[in-house]
């Protein structure tokens, strides 16, 4: 999922954890987040195996709604990624823009850059 602050990713993990606790599903699914290469503090922390997220002081991406240099729920997302044996990747602005065109051409859906980041991922 495209990730900036990490609130959506953290909430999705919480929802699945509740489903496991209620025995409605057997296990947590693997979560995957996508950040823009020009602002990827969670991806970098995850890759380092760190609990500490280094702020990105100068976010630079066309996907401005996920260009969050100090993610509010970042530590929660790191915990969720590790608990689910998930993944965290960064995509370039060129990949994001190509995904916008791909979605439009193949599905007729126009996505804004942050939404297209997940397709790029």
Instruction: Output the radius of gyration.
Output: 15 Å
The number of helical runs is 5
As laid out across the biggest beta sheet, the strand order is 1-2
Total beta-strand segments: 2
- The helix-and-strand class reads mainly alpha
Q: What low-confidence regions span 5 or more consecutive residues with pLDDT below 50?
A: none
Secondary-structure element order, as H and E?
Answer: HEHHEHH
Sheet with most strands: 2 strands, parallel
Mean pLDDT: 96
- Percent range of helical residues: 40-55%
Anisotropy-based shape: globular
Q: Assess the beta-strand content as a share of residues.
A: 5-15%
* Measured distance between first and last alpha carbons: 9 Å
How is this structure best described in words?
There is one protein chain. This protein is mainly alpha-helical and 121 residues long. It has helices at 7-21, 41-48, 74-83, 93-107, 113-120; strands at 32-36, 87-91. It is globular. The longest helix is centred in the first third of the chain and has 15 residues, at 7-21. A two-stranded parallel sheet has the order 1-2. Helices cover 46% and strands 8% of the residues.
């Amino acid at each position: 999922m495209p990730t900036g602050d990490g609130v959506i990713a953290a909430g999705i993990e919480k929802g699945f954890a509740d489903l496991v606790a209620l025995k409605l599903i057997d296990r947590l699914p693997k979560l995957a987040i996508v950040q823009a290469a020009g602002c990827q503090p969670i991806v970098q922390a995850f890759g380092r195996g760190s609990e500490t997220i280094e702020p990105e002081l100068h976010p630079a991406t066309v996907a401005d709604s996920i260009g969050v240099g100090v993610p509010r729920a970042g530590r929660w997302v790191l915990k969720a990624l590790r608990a689910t044996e998930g993944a965290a990747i960064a995509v370039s602005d060129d990949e994001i823009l190509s995904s916008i065109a791909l979605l439009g051409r193949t599905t007729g859906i126009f996505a804004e850059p942050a939404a297209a980041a997940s397709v790029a991922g």
